[in-house]
Design a protein that fits this description.
Chain C: Keywords: ATP-binding, Nucleotide-binding. The complex is a heterotrimer. By secondary structure, chain A is an alpha+beta fold. In chain A, about 35% of the residues lie in helices and about 25% in strands. Chain C is globular, with a radius of gyration of 20 Å. The chains are: A alpha+beta, B alpha+beta, C alpha/beta.
Chain lengths: ~325, ~675, ~300
């Protein structure tokens, strides 16, 4: 007896805390942010109900009248069912994954449900396009992911604006909707255009002088052999050693030893700016993959030479947010941090 | 099952099937070309469930719609407003089926079909039809549900639909009982249909049409004795003016309001009549009626022809209680009778008849002898009874009496009345119904095919004498109804529905038949005739008095009841009052989730704890693992281990987990 | 894990390298007394695996290479007229072995396929009205090529359902393939590890493994989801439910438990259900129905 009460206490206690935590994490729907109105089908059934009421009264036909009442009662109940269906869901927009301009970016939504109702559908309206999610969370299940493929976006940083979520359940007589504003923007990098990289050595007194271009190409100088790590590219594996049964070893190139150069936007001044950014986008990734330390000079904004994943992200972000006249870079910097 | 129907096409398929199902009982008002369109549309829509057929172009369809609309307008005059509306709805539905490719198209179809069903209810209201159409409504709602069912399959969707419907019905019933009945807003267009009942004029031949309909006219529920078949003459309309072809009401008899009170005496039948709308003001009664109570909203009077009538045309069912005194003589109001009226004949018609009556030398005979003489013509010569009399367009009496000698009741009545008038006996035609089917032991059901016409002749001593010439030719007509007096060919004319019913009764299914009738009777009493008065009587039975205050209380109480019902539906009872067996693993997971570790749906307890174990300290890990072991043994194995042991482990780990949390929160603050 | 089984797996693992899980699953399948479907590209070691299984278990082994012209009689056996004593004597086909490898089953005609599947279900063969019992134990390990080439007859859903499990071996990882090459010359000798008596005893103990109510609920929830959700092209049959049940028991057994946990179900579910859920829809690579199924059901809420 006492144990079951204790158990109950724990259950209630935790349920409360869990709910509070969930409310902070994901967007829950409730009276304060949910709107509900009949759908066009709902409006038309209401109109039919009124027509039937008139018809039934005029013919003094009780059955037609009761049909009209039935429709009204259906609408009334649908209102409630729809509301409870809608508010059982929580939608969480995960941070959009940055993508390239020539691809359709993904937006991941995680939908969780307290699972009172099964079936029904949710629609997400993002930038005027409707994405239909037939609810597949069954009773007693909690979560599902919904992957939305947005249309191609141009390079840049896009704030998606508010996402309208609407839910339809039952006979489709009512529609509940609410808005979600994703906190994080969608970052779209330039598309990729292949072109070999040219690294410039840059002196400190770069100001007026043409860079004393000692062009560096990535050398193939083998520096040594070391134990293979999972992150090493496969084409660095020393197959010779593998064949000898000496285990998986990686060739170590003397890449970052001293090679450190700048990628300049200036190099592509004759090309349209977008094209130039596309080329830079490719080069940045190539260099980063080869673990070359490089800097990026976009004229108004410079990123000091470095290497690594974080550096790459920073470079890509500045490419994404580059705009010829103004300096959005402050903004980009804040996003990156 | 060569091919499976894809789930996306299922709603459309059900909608098509329901459409056919709905339209079937409405067959009669639908025009032929609409039928053609219907078959095409249903065929195409049905085929679409199995093959990919592109929808029609909008442009083509719009033009076609305009064309159809034109046709409807052209035909609307012949068909009347209601039939035209039915046709319009069917056409609209068909056209929508042809261009069906969106969800909203199906929504339109559903709305139109609901309207169509409502129209069906105007035509048919019997309990069978109510059930029939309820099925249609259910399947329409199922379609509506399927359209938004998401990932739910068709079977669980069906269960959900049923659940929602069951929740809806009590509210609809409450609304039905509570919402005040209003009088008609305006005069509604009636069906322009020949079947609606007796008309105020009889051209011999008319009633032959009537006899083909099995529509209900009225039901009489007797309290006590039932009149014998031969006594069941239901008087409705009295016709006294003859223009050579048609009998009409010459001048109306005086209403009986301020006439001296008749002395009712003799044998009495007490009964209640529930009459369908007649579209005329005339009602039905056995002779001589006395109205004791009227339940419907109109007043009912008796005039000097012993007819009952209401103030105006009965567009709604009427319900009234009568006493009839069949033994009484119909000799009242002698002083106000205008015998000229009952001797009127058109000039220069039917010379053969005139000559024949002259040749009989009737001058010195009394009325009864004259009647005897004249009716003997029917019995002695080869007259026969048929539902398909030949056309007798001019000199109809002559043609009937001397050429064809075949006819139906109005032929006989018309001929006899004419002969009587020539012979200087005041006479008139009475139309009404004769007979009726006895159901149970107290209910007589009278249908349109029971329509009849007979003759009344005046004798100074006896008053009006009822003469039924038809009965002389076809005595069965009187004793056992229309069917027995018909030959096989004729009975084909009766609508199949009723024929089936009768066959059923021949095959010993009479009880079932009676059951249906009684169900229909109760249905019409409880549902169809539910009106303001019924509402008032509910109010009275509840509060004792039906005043405005009680009415408002009643209304408010009902709405509160509806509200309470909805609350009842939506309060999460199970979560509030469930016995609360929260299993231990759920508690641990909740505790961990509370700490910010999210369990994936698919993870088991062990997997979850293993995943997050790097983030817990050693003590916590130990306790959690200990709990998991205990729990697994308890929950899954046969080994008997006390739950308290599991619980102790749970409490330990929970305490350990929350302790740290509290410390952390203290540090934060 | 039971030491005998462990040894068994290790021994077979010396021959089919880097496929511990698959070997474990195939043993589970045999312990659960069900037939196995191997689906893989040619040359992945299907035959090696089944041969190794046969040797380890000390069972007779035969391999039938299915081709489009293989007739049921080639497999089941024929009656041959014996002139010396003037009567028909029955010559059993390769199916009269305890382990039968039906290689490339989807290349055979549906007629032959169904003859095999009938033998699998009935564990007996009827030829010319005479019924012959198949040896006991009797396992069929069928292999099929996932690519639908022309001239192949993919197994219909109803027949897929008869295979308790379907596993695919896949390419070996780097190390295993290397080992495979390095140890190529050393002779691969296997001894009988589990004699028939042990196997039968084990099968009996497997059926005594307990599945508690909450695990059964979990199992049924999984199964019912496939019937209710439209995500799955083919719902699971009760036969499949039974197969999951038995395999989970067997898996619990080889892990030295006398009760089934939800983890057992999760472990064996993909191999038991994937082929049933997918049916003939091969083209949808990447998305696994059984994974999707597991993703949706919470084992705790059961």
């Amino acid at each position: 007896m006492i144990t079951s009460i204790k158990k109950r206490y724990w259950a209630i206690h935790y349920e409360w805390v869990v709910k509070k935590a969930a409310a902070q994490q994901a967007q829950g729907f409730g009276l304060h942010n949910t709107f509900i109105l009949p759908t066009s089908f709902g409006w038309s059934t209401i109109a039919v109900a009124i027509c039937l009421f008139v018809l039934g009264t005029n013919y003094q036909n009780n059955i037609v009248l009761s049909l009209s009442y039935l429709l009204l009662a259906l609408n009334l109940l649908s209102l409630f069912h729809n509301y409870f269906f809608f508010t059982q869901h929580k939608v969480d927009v995960t941070r959009p994954i940055p993508d390239y301009a020539n691809r359709k970016p993904h937006l991941k939504l995680s939908i969780s449900s307290s699972g009172t109702y099964s079936g029904g559908e949710l629609n997400f309206i993002i930038e005027g396009l409707i994405y239909n999610y037939p609810v597949s969370i069954k009773k007693g299940h909690h979560k599902d992911n919904f992957d939305i493929r947005l249309p191609k976006h141009p390079r840049g940083i896009h704030y998606l604006g508010k996402i309208t979520v609407n839910g339809i359940y039952g006979f489709g007589l009512f529609k509940c909707w609410s808005y979600i504003v994703p906190d994080d923007p969608l970052v779209v990098y330039p598309a990729v255009e292949k072109q070999a990289a040219i690294l410039h050595k840059m002196n400190d007194d770069v100001s007026g002088k043409e860079a004393s271009d000692s062009q560096i190409s990535i050398s193939d100088n083998l520096q040594g052999i070391r134990q293979h790590q999972k992150t090493d590219p496969l084409h660095h594996v020393s197959w010779k050693h593998v064949a000898k049964g000496q285990g998986l070893l990686s060739k170590d190139f003397n890449e970052s030893t001293g090679i450190s150069g700048w990628l300049l936007l200036r190099d592509f001044l004759d090309l349209p700016i977008e094209k130039a950014l596309m080329i830079l986008c490719f080069q940045v990734q190539e260099l980063s993959r080869d673990k070359v330390s490089f800097g990026l000079d976009l004229g108004s904004h410079k990123i000091l030479p470095n290497s690594g994943e974080k550096h790459l992200k920073e470079c890509l972000l500045s490419l994404a947010s580059y705009s010829a006249e103004s300096n959005n870079n402050a903004k980009a910097a804040t996003i990156a941090s | 099952m060569s091919q499976q129907i894809s789930p996306s096409k299922l709603p459309a398929l059900i909608a098509v099937a329901t459409f056919c199902y709905t339209v079937m009982p409405l067959a009669s008002p639908i025009m032929v070309w609409v039928w053609v369109l219907f078959i095409c549309a249903v065929g195409i829509a049905g085929a679409r469930a199995f093959y990919d057929i592109p929808p029609l172009k909008n442009m083509t369809l719009n033009l076609f719609a305009v064309f159809c609309l034109g046709l409807l307008v052209v035909f609307s005059d012949d068909y009347g407003l209601l039939s035209t509306m039915v046709n319009l709805l069917v056409v609209a539905c068909c056209l929508k089926f042809l261009m069906l490719h969106k969800k909203s198209d199906l929504h339109v179809i559903l709305v139109v079909q609901i309207f169509l069903i409502a129209c069906g209810f105007i035509y048919h209201q019997a309990v069978g039809f109510a059930i029939y159409y309820s099925i249609a409504i259910c399947s329409l709602l199922y379609v509506a549900f399927l359209l938004n069912a998401g990932n739910l399959r068709s079977k669980p969707s069906f269960r959900q639909t049923t659940k929602l419907l069951i929740q809806t019905v009590p509210i609809a019933v409450a609304l039905f009982l509570v919402v005040p009945r209003l009088p008609p807003f305006w005069q509604t267009p009636t069906e322009s249909n020949t079947k609606t009942g007796l008309s105020e004029s009889v051209t011999p031949g008319d009633i032959a049409n009537l006899a083909q309909s099995a529509d209900l006219v009225f039901r009489a529920e007797f309290n006590g004795e039932i009149p014998a078949p031969a006594e069941r003459y239901w008087r409705s309309i009295v016709l006294d003016y003859f223009d050579g072809a048609t009998w009409t009401i010459g001048s109306e008899a005086i209403a009986n309001d301020n006439q001296p009170y008749l002395r009712y005496e003799g044998n009495v039948f007490r009964y209640l009549i529930m009459a369908e709308p007649t579209q005329t003001k005339w009602l039905f009664s056995l002779d001589i009626p006395r109205v004791t109570d009227v339940m419907s909203s109109q007043n009912i009077y008796m005039n000097q022809n012993y007819q009952l009538h209401a103030n105006g045309a009965a567009t709604q069912p009427s319900l009234y209680v009568l006493e009839s005194y069949p033994g009484m003589k119909l000799d009242h109001y002698q002083d106000t009778l205008n015998f000229e009226k009952y001797l009127q004949v058109p000039n220069n018609t039917n010379p053969q008849t005139n000559a024949w009556i002259d040749s009989l030398n009737l001058a010195n005979k009394n009325t009864l002898e004259i009647i005897q003489l004249l009716t003997s013509k029917f019995t002695q010569e080869a007259f026969s009874y048929t539902l398909k009399p030949p056309l007798m367009q001019n000199e109809s009496v002559d043609q009937f009496l001397f050429d064809y000698q075949r006819g139906f009741c109005s032929h006989y009545a018309s001929a006899l009345t004419y002969m009587l008038r020539i012979a200087n006996v005041p006479a008139r035609i009475v139309t009404g119904y004769q007979g009726g089917q006895v159901q149970g032991d107290a209910i007589i059901t009278v249908r349109q095919y029971d329509a009849h016409a007979w003759v009344e002749a005046w004798d100074d001593t006896v008053g009006w004498i009822r003469i039924d010439p038809t009965s002389l030719v076809a005595p069965n007509r009187l004793l056992s109804g229309l069917f027995s007096s018909l030959d096989d060919e004729d009975s084909d004319l009766i609508e199949g529905n009723e024929l089936f019913r009768n066959m059923a009764s021949f095959w010993g299914l009479k009880q079932l038949n009676d059951l249906i009738t009684i169900a229909n009777h109760n249905w019409s009493q409880m549902v169809l005739d539910f009106d303001q008065d019924s509402q008032r009587s509910i109010l009275e039975s509840l509060f004792g008095d039906a005043n405005a205050k009680n009415l408002i209380t009643f209304l408010i109480a009902s709405f509160i009841a509806i509200g309470a019902f909805i609350t009842f539906l939506f309060v999460p009872w199970r979560r509030w009052f469930s016995a609360g067996e929260v299993s231990a693993d759920v508690l641990l997971v909740e505790a961990l989730e509370n700490k910010g570790y999210d369990k994936h749906v698919s993870e088991t307890l062990k997997q979850f704890c293993q995943r997050i174990s790097p983030e817990l300290n050693r003590e916590q890990n130990n306790l959690v693992n200990k709990f998991i072991d205990a729990f697994y043994t308890y929950q899954y194995s046969t080994e008997s281990i006390k739950y308290s042991q599991v619980e102790a482990c749970l409490m330990d780990s929970l305490n350990c987990l929350t302790k740290r949390k509290n410390k952390a929160s203290n540090a934060n603050s | 894990m039971r030491s005998d089984i462990r040894q068994c797996i290790d021994k077979i693992g010396n021959i089919v390298r880097g496929k511990q899980t698959q070997i474990e699953l195939s043993l589970v399948c045999i312990l659960a007394n069900g037939h196995l479907l191997l689906e893989d590209l040619p040359g992945m070691g299907k035959t090696t695996l089944s041969q190794a299984l046969a040797t380890t278990l000390g069972l007779d082994y035969a391999r039938i290479q299915f081709t489009s012209d293989l007739l049921p009689a080639d497999m089941l056996g024929v009656n041959i007229f014996n002139q010396s004593n003037n009567e028909f004597t029955f010559h059993g086909g390769p199916i009269f072995n305890q382990i039968v490898l039906a290689d490339e089953i989807n290349r055979a005609s549906p007629k032959t396929q169904s003859a095999l599947l009938e033998a699998m279900a009935e564990r007996q063969v009827t030829i010319d009205g005479e019924t012959y019992k198949l040896p006991d134990p009797f396992f069929v390990i069928a292999s099929q090529n996932p690519l639908h080439q022309s001239g192949t007859h993919p197994l219909p859903e109803s027949q897929l359902d008869r295979f308790q499990m379907q596993i695919s071996l896949g390419y070996p990882d780097f190390e295993s393939e290397k080992q495979m090459l390095l140890r190529q010359d050393s002779p691969l000798v296997l001894d009988t590890m589990l004699p028939i008596e042990t196997l039968t005893a084990m099968q009996q103990s497997v059926s005594k493994v307990i599945m508690s109510d909450s695990v059964i609920n979990y199992l049924l929830k999984l199964v019912r989801l496939t019937r209710e959700s439209s995500d799955f092209p083919n719902a699971l049959s009760p036969r499949a439910t039974k197969a999951i049940f038995r395999c989970a028991q067997a898996y619990a057994f080889i892990n030295r438990r006398d009760f089934v946990t939800p983890e057992d179900i999760q472990f064996i579910l993909p191999s038991v259900t994937e082929h049933r859920l997918r049916g003939q829809l091969y083209n949808q690579t990447g998305s696994s129905y059984s994974e999707h199924l597991l993703q949706q059901v919470d084992p705790l809420a059961a």
